[in-house]
Task: inverse folding
């Protein structure tokens, strides 16, 4: 049996697009609760290529600041190692109005295409072309509009992130229909609002974004990783253990909690917001 306490790490799928969003900021950004992962290091290296420097003053904290806003190219050598790298496309268009971003698989468009990303950004008025495995995008004529992000397999999570980050500095009002509702998209929305963005409907499938002139730096704590939390919950149940999960957000785990309870597992919500599984 597994017994004891475990602190849940910050969500990788939240921190990667949030890091990309720091491209939009006029001023330093402080991200707290950041997990120590290889993908995070990759995103930091991509941001450095795009003129965003970062430091880690203490474990779990990253401080970023834009030092060169002229860079617009995210190279294949880095992007190929991590699909989430495509999240820099939206903020580059939103802040710098130009972007050159490699496909996550170079010239190979595999079973997880980014056609909805491209369609959503084209809906905003961006001119997009693909050449040599790169997306070349020109957003100098973008303006608010209605964008539909539904696809054959449901809404696109990273596509929602890209369109949202492009829209916050785009003149006019952008309406995103069939937006992804994952907690990680909600966390990105809250970070953008902390920077000064105007977004209504965070957490739902209908987002309304009113473009602003600039976004300031902000401090933000990343949400807990629901995949990691669900894994520990399952491990506690399998081993007939007694595990307390510190930092887990029960509102992000309702399906997992309900399923375990139907199986006879006791799941308690703790006063501090964590969970006890036994």
Result:
């Amino acid at each position: 049996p597994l017994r004891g306490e475990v602190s849940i790490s910050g969500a990788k799928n939240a921190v990667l697009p949030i890091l990309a969003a720091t491209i939009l900021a006029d001023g330093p950004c402080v991200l707290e609760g950041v997990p120590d992962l290889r993908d995070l290091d990759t995103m930091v290296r991509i941001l450095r290529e795009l003129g965003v420097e970062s430091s880690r003053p203490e474990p779990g904290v990253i401080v970023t600041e834009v030092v060169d806003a002229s860079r617009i190219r995210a190279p294949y050598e880095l992007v190929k190692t991590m699909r989430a790298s495509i999240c820099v496309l939206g903020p580059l268009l939103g802040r710098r109005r130009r972007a050159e971003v490699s496909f996550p698989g170079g010239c190979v468009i595999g079973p997880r295409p980014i056609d909805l990303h491209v369609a959503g950004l084209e809906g905003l008025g961006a001119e997009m072309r693909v050449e040599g495995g790169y997306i070349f995008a020109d957003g100098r004529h973008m303006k608010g509009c209605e964008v539909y992000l539904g696809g054959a397999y449901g809404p696109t999570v990273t596509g929602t992130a890209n369109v949202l980050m492009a829209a916050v500095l785009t003149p006019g009002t952008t309406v995103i229909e069939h937006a992804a509702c994952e907690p990680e998209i909600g966390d990105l929305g809250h970070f953008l609002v902390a920077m000064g963005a105007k977004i209504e409907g965070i957490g739902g499938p209908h987002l309304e974004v009113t473009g602003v002139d600039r976004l300031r730096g902000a401090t933000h704590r990343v949400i807990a990783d629901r995949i990691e939390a669900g894994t520990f919950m399952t491990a506690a149940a399998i081993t007939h253990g007694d595990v307390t999960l510190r930092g887990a957000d029960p509102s992000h785990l309702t399906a997992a909690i309900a399923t375990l309870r139907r199986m006879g597992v006791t799941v308690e919500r703790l006063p501090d917001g964590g969970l006890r599984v036994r």
